[in-house]
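Q: Protein A?
A:
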Amino acid sequence: MVEVTMNGLDEMRKLLEEGNVDVLRTMVKQMAEAFMGAEADALCGAGHGERHPARANCRNGYRSRPWDTRAGTIELALPRLRSGSYFPDWLLSPRKRSEQALVAAIADAYLAGVSTRRVDKLVRTLGVEGISKSEVSRLAASLDELVEAFRCRPLEGLYPYLMLDALVVKVREGGRICNVAAVHAVGVNSDGRRESLGLDLITSEDGAGWTAFLRGLVARGLAGVTLVTSDAHQGLVDAIAATLPGAAWQRCRTHFVRNLLTRVPKAAQPFVATVVRSIFAQPDAEQVAEQHLRVVAQLQERFPTAAELLDEAGPEILAFAAVPKEVWRQVWSNNPLERLNREIRRRTDVVGIFPNRAAALRLIGAVLAEQNDEWADSGRRYMSLEAIAKTLRPGSEPALEAAMIAA
């Protein structure tokens, strides 16, 4: 503790005028810890070590917590209580993993000198210019460990429904800016709940990259897949067939309709979209197939190329009709993943260009891990137990009963 005397104050003033950061850090640290100590004493009902009849709690040592300031990172000693807990919300904001990863990515880019004008203001608002390289490394290392554990965890049980998608991010590699594909998977387990199953970065969205990704999921325990929903990227479709034998493939309805509408004049697009959607509005699988044939015939005369595409894609876009009707809306498109992609984009767009692949994997992985925790904690099922039971063992009442007991 710096002794508060006139000579001490004069010496401190001199050091501050010289820009001595260590003295400034010491002052900030002592002031913050004094405030926290006062708060802890108030919660205890008495001063530290003081005997008092109104005492309701006792101190129980300290725990260390880094605090990023303009003077650099300061290790604070947070008071611990014997009963309950104390955390200075007014001073330290417990960041979510995705927010930590965002700060780490921006800081990494900024310290590497690759930050852009578009993000410079945000970088300074976050105070990243005051974070040391060692602090960035420490934050990144802790997040890397968390994301790696999430990405490599064993997959237990059955996942009858699987959704696959990819989004492109920009990464600096070898002095160039490259596009890499972040591929990820979401599954619905036998309890009817969604899980984020995996994430990887591949150089190009080709068959080899998707095959390696799916083989990794299978090696970790992915099993029981009945239906896979994705877009019609040929490399992805081939990878599904090679790694998930027996699983049906549902071509994303949303992507297909967009492709189909490019084959008709703009003025006719609303009409064509409406009649195509009528295929999916039927009450059972038989009427879905019949309506598909009727729509193909209806479009044949005016829009023959669109009718041809709709006819050829029949087995791909109607695969959903083979599973219980209760889940049709959840499996006939990749819209749930599109919403998740938008949440990822909200963070990656802030970074713009990642300094390396590790930073991209860290940020996207943290977002997915956070989303996975929210799904697990929500208590809501994405699909009912009845629908899952019908999927696993069509028409089996014992399977339904067993699934409900297991839940």
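Q: Protein B?
A:
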Amino acid sequence: MKRYESSEALSLPAVVATFPTRQRLSSIVEDLCSRAGHCVTVQEIRDALGERSFATLLLFFALLNLLPLPPGTTLVLGLPLMLVALQMLSGREAVWLPKFLLSKSLTADQFRKLAEKMLPRLQWLEGRVRPRYWPFGNSRMAERTIGLVALILGTVVTLPIPFGNWFPALACALFGLALAERDGLVLVAAGVAVIIAITMLGVVFGTAGVMASMVFS
């Protein structure tokens, strides 16, 4: 019995060592900032994220769209969001992005400024989520369901709607975070963000319709 306990104790560290702790998304963003050259391309972002889940990619691109951006930037950063969601819906196992999108870039200064605004929010979120109350038994079903909703929201993000893309991007970020951590409470928060987004879009389109009818009447 003593010999068995001794061999088990000796072998345990080797077994544990084969399961390294996964690097947090906030750490990856910090690494990208530290080694950024003249610009940071979408391909560099994708390569830095590596073989991470679609949920993490959805979260990352959604967070970028939550930040104050110059006009037209959401079209560049919204397309990866849509493509990730579409591939989640289709059941792909690895992310694919077209070459023309991979070559899109932000200057190093622009990326660092975005990261400075994004990192505190991301680190705050990372410290508060955990697996709980997850309603999906099948991870593939969860990916496809969230992918469908995120695809619709991602399409809205790319549209030039005044004040209309922040809540859809927030909902996508919360969906990605909920899926990555299997957190049912964050999933509920994402659903609330969707309801707010739909309400705000209704107000925007309703106001535009009233104004159009006043102009052309």
